[in-house]
Design a protein that fits this description.
The structure holds 2 protein chains of 2 kinds. Chain A is α/β, with parallel strands linked by helices. Chain A has a single domain, classed as Rossmann fold. Helix content of chain A is 35%, strand content 24%. Chain A contains 6 helices and 10 strands. Chain A has helices spanning 40-47, 70-80, 96-106, 113-123, 138-150, 168-185; strands at 2-12, 15-18, 22-24, 29-33, 55-60, 63-64, 81-84, 156-160, 188-193, 205-207. In chain A, strands 1, 2, 3, 5 and 6 form a 5-stranded antiparallel beta sheet that branches. In chain A, strands 7-8-9-4-10 form a 5-stranded parallel beta sheet, with helices on both faces. In chain A, a hairpin with a 2-residue loop joins strand 5 and strand 6 (63-64). By secondary structure, chain B is of the alpha+beta class. In chain B, helix 9 packs parallel to helix 12. Chain B contains 13 helices and 13 strands. Chain B has 2 domains: 3-46 and 283-415, no CATH class; 55-269, no CATH class. Chain B starts with a helix and ends with a helix. Chain B is elongated and about 100 Å long. At the A-B interface, helix 2 and helix 3 of A face helix 1, helix 10 and helix 13 of B.
């Protein structure tokens, strides 16, 4: 469960953002819509505590993460927040499997190869586990990103424009998979996007 | 999955770049290590064989050549000296021991040296098989001579003129092997020792007059000097030897050298002085090589730096990604240092191996030309210092670009595409 309260942030005196309050319960999906430049990525980074807000708070499962120290923040994020980015990025020298295990390793959790294989099966890249990530198609890479985001069974999944670079077929597939996975682990799913195709998929919407 | 695995994967991902850095590191370390090894070997061999000899008496010419030929059995002698005059000079009370040497022939490139028991005792050599040479034309072989030539007790052989294999054979008089020395790790191992009289006996009966063999003092002539003529033939030549190894009773004996050099037809050379001069001449070469090796290692460090710096620029997003996934900046800093460290370690191990290969090649050559063995491959204490320096360079070269991790803005980097 995620709730934000009166978040503000400014990059410079001329570039300031004030955001409306956001709330998303477990097993729910929330769509945050807005054109480019409306602060969508800024909001997502604030929710993930990749940016520290100037004022306001973010509460995830009863923890006010804005009160945590930097080290605690990093640890919390690793264990409880899964992030899917617009362009899939991996550690290019490692295989797909190792990239998934990396999520466990950096969160200080035991490395779960079985879970990785299970997710690979569900998300349709089971044959690619030993390949380098650069050898996969864009659609496959995005699905690996989803798998990585849920490796630690986080309470919140944040997706930043996950479908903007994909064709219609892969777009639909990614949205379906995101919902499936978040429901499976009982997480909140928040998607930030300007992709109009998603308006029909998720009813719970907020406009920036 | 751990940081070391990621470091290693990163190095493998950029194989050419890693290879170059590793190669430069290896090259620098190979040169330094080889210099250290050779230095130690040469030092050992030179000091061991010169120990206890205070002065060498021989024919006039280059003092260094006299020392090299008479003590180390390298290079040609400067000529011969009359036995009688040498004996007269060494009757001086300041002289404790005088060991006569007579050289000029060889068997399969191993030198035949006419001398007496004092020479053997001086080097601490002991007879392993058979006995010490006693009569004319008896020889005792050094351990390496026996190994290389296959000569055994009781065998006979003819010597060849000069100091290289290709000399003319003395067909008439044959030497007989009566003993073989135990290995003594001194110059004796590579010599064939025989009584002084053998050398005179071999050269009798040549039937050539003294005048036809002009004594030449330079090493160009390989021909054995000192034709000895039987008194019975009526030509009456004085007996000659090549040199005398001399031990003083006290350090005051050094004054003798000056007297001999200015007042007689002979030369007195001091080994300590000449060897020091030799090393200072060599030292220039060694210093140059050492400076080159250091330069190469610095360039190796630069190569690691450039390679990691470029790699980091490309991997910015990966770093930010890992930070967002829970890695601490110190963890990532450590991971980058590991990359430099691994390169340094690989360079060190390979460098050490290659330097030993180099030493082996040197040693084979030295054995062939001079019969000296340089093959001691143990790790020297100075090489651990080289390891520390290599690690220092690798880590420092990696640390400079890695510091950028601490200044990275995660959000901004992730938002860039």
């Amino acid at each position: 469960m995620l709730a934000s309260h009166q978040l503000t942030f400014s990059y410079s005196p001329t570039k300031q953002f004030t955001f409306q309050d956001i709330r998303c319960n477990d097993r729910e999906a929330l769509l945050i819509l807005g054109r480019s430049g409306r602060g969508k990525t800024t909001l997502l980074h604030l929710l993930a505590l990749l940016l520290r807000p100037e004022s306001g708070s973010v509460i995830i499962n009863d923890t006010d993460i804005t009160q945590l120290s930097p080290a605690q923040t990093a640890a919390f994020r690793a264990a409880h927040i899964g992030i899917v980015y617009q362009k899939p990025h991996f550690v290019s020298s490692l295989s797909v499997m190792d990239n998934l295990l990396l999520a466990n390793y950096l969160a200080g959790k035991p490395q779960d190869q079985n879970r990785a294989r299970e997710l690979a099966g569900q998300l349709g890249f089971a044959d690619q586990l030993s390949k380098k990530t650069a050898q996969l198609s864009q659609g496959e890479q995005q699905r690996v990103s989803i798998a990585r985001a849920v490796m630690n069974q986080p309470g919140v999944i944040l997706a930043d424009e996950p479908t903007s670079n994909l064709d219609d077929e892969n777009c639909a597939r990614v949205v379906t998979l995101l919902r499936q996975q978040s429901e499976q682990i009982g997480a909140s799913l928040i998607i930030v996007t300007h992709d109009q195709r998603l308006k029909d998929e998720i009813s719970n919407q907020v406009l920036l | 999955m751990n940081l070391l695995k990621i470091s290693w994967a990163n190095l493998k991902d950029k194989p050419l770049s890693s290879f170059l850095s590793g190669l430069l590191m290896t090259l620098g370390i190979t040169i330094i290590s080889l210099l250290l090894l050779l230095n130690k070997q040469l030092d050992e061999q030179f000091s061991k064989n010169v120990k206890g000899i205070d002065m060498v008496l021989g024919a006039k010419g280059s003092p260094l050549q006299l020392i090299l030929s008479s003590i180390y059995q390298i290079d040609s002698p400067t000529g011969n000296i009359p036995l009688e005059e040498a004996e007269r000079l060494t009757r001086n009370p300041m002289i404790k021991t005088a060991i006569p040497l007579s050289m000029g022939d060889n068997y399969q490139s191993f030198r035949i040296v006419g001398t007496n028991q004092k020479y053997v005792d001086h080097f601490g050599a002991t007879v392993g098989q058979g006995k010490l040479f006693g009569q004319e034309l008896e020889v005792t072989l050094g351990s390496r001579v026996a190994e290389a030539t296959g000569l055994k007790l009781g065998d006979t052989f003819a010597s060849s003129h000069g100091l290289d294999k290709g000399g003319e054979e003395h067909g008439e008089g044959k030497y007989k092997v009566v003993g073989i020395f135990n290995p003594s790790n001194t110059v004796v191992d590579q010599l064939i020792l025989t009584p002084l009289s053998s050398v005179w006996a071999i050269h009798e009966g040549h039937g050539e007059s003294e005048g036809q063999h002009a004594v030449e003092n330079l090493d160009a002539d390989e021909h054995h000097e000192g034709e000895q003529h039987d008194e019975a033939h009526g030509e009456g030549g004085p007996r000659q030897i090549t040199s005398m190894l001399i031990k003083f009773r006290s350090p005051l004996g050094m004054m003798l050298a000056r007297g001999i050099n200015t007042n007689s037809k002979l030369q007195a050379a001091l080994p300590a002085t000449e060897i020091n001069r030799l090393f200072s001449l060599l030292g220039v070469g060694v210093d140059t090589l050492r400076a080159m090796a250091i330069a190469i290692m610095i360039i190796a460090g630069l190569s690691v730096f450039v390679s990691l710096y470029n790699s980091l620029k490309e991997r910015r997003y990966e770093m930010a990604l890992m930070l967002s996934m829970g890695a601490s900046r110190t963890q990532l800093f450590g991971m980058l240092l590991l990359e430099g460290l691994v390169l340094a370690l690989i360079g060190f191990v390979l460098g050490l191996l290659l330097s030993r290969v180099g030493l082996l090649l040197f040693s084979m050559r030295a054995e062939q030309e001079f019969h000296y063995s340089l093959s001691n491959f143990t790790i020297l204490p100075q090489e651990w210092a080289v390891l520390a320096i290599a690690i220092g360079i690798g880590v420092l070269a990696a640390a400079l670009p890695a510091l950028g991790i601490y200044r990275m803005n995660i959000s901004r980097t992730l938002a860039e595409d």
